[in-house]
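User: Could you check the structure of this?
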Amino acid sequence: MKDTILFGDCKETLSAFLPQSARTCVTSPPYYGLRDYGTATWVGGDPNCKHRKVGKQGSNCITGHKNHDDMGSVGDYIFKSVCPLCGAVRQDSQLGLEETPEEYIESLVSVFREVRNILTDDGTLWVNLGDSYYNYRPGKGQSYPKQSVSKTKQDLPDECNKRGKKLDGLKEKDLIGIPWMFAFAMRKDGWYLRQDIIWHKPNPMPESVKDRCTKSHEYIFLFSKNRKYFYDNEAIKEPVKKDWGTRDRTKGKYHNTGTGLQPHSGLTKSYDRKNKRSVWLVPDKSHGKYGTQENEAKHRQGIHANRGDNLIAVRTKLPTQKEFVEFLRSKTKAKILAEHTDIPLTKIEHWFRFDESGFSYPSIEDWKKVRDYIDDYSVMDEGLTYYELKTDEVVVSNTKNKRSVWSVTVKPYKEAHFATYPPDLIEPCILAGSEEGDTILDPFMGAGTTAAVAKSLNRYYIGCELNKDYGNLIQRRIQDYKPVKEVAQEPTVNILDLI
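Assistant: Sure, the predicted structure tokens are below.
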């Protein structure tokens, strides 16, 4: 099954995909308490009730989304289980509207447990997840909207969009820590937590906060199914920048006419100051007076002074760790070798270890001291004593390993789904986690960004989406992306046929 999206609850539809049919999974699940995607049905009660807390909600909210009341609401503005206004019972399979963070994390872990079955043994999982603030307002103040300065109830609503349920361990204004709660829960469930990647947003959503930095980052967690996994480091290497240059703002974008703000001119800026962001770019001063590693290697006396002039011994015929350890254990013991030589036992013990972190090969000198006490040592002798002399030159490359902070601007998306991640953000995930012709999984397909980028990189896609209304949207988004080059295509399933 390839190039297929199954509509419905992913906790049920994921089982339809074959085990080990996807090389990597790239996804962004619904964030905790952030949005209602309109998939609920209500049983009983008043059919004309909106099942939302009474509040002053305009047709244009501060986030810029028109008709926000019809698109979905934030936090506890919507009722998650029973509507206290009419008594209707909510039936919904979407994630993100659980009563507590712990329930939300448990739901996510159960979904990715199914994902693990679909991934190949060398598969990886990339999850983009943002954090949430706890906005519980205790006491009588809970019933008054923030905009009001009145000290009496007057005709104000009985409810506001603050969290009305007190959660143990959380205080008003607390950052909940959802991403790391999720990461640790996944690790406990058997996943290998390999890395936290920071998605740095150079153009974040403005915030008027005065007691913290403007939020300008989210997390991408890299998990692996097993200790050894596929990761194409070369596919996502970055070019080495030698000259950053100076940006000429006279050719940049101007502000909209009528705002009263002056456009950029030359190297000046329209804004003198801005709120400090949550990602701090601090210059690396570790090279001191030399400024860069290149200058230090060229001019520093000592470690770099004679680089390229010295010859070093490189052992190119060493046996594998497994071969050597099995041989050594079958012939002798560490204590015996220590008793007959002047080599410390603590050093010899490392030769007998199967774990990579604790293992080391004996030096040529040490091997010559102990080999006479080992039966049939000639089997290993050549591999352990052979070496080639090479110069200690620094290998210069035009690329460097990709860093763990990715600066990707937020991209606007005009369609109905307003929680899409930028294609540029997940392209490195797909390139590093798969090869051409592989299948990419996304259990929360949403607007179809993962599928579209997968096709553009000559991969197949499979996934799940709860909201059937996104079918046409996903198909249009996929069609916008053309593959870099054609690959052999298998018979596919039309997305709309599955609705």
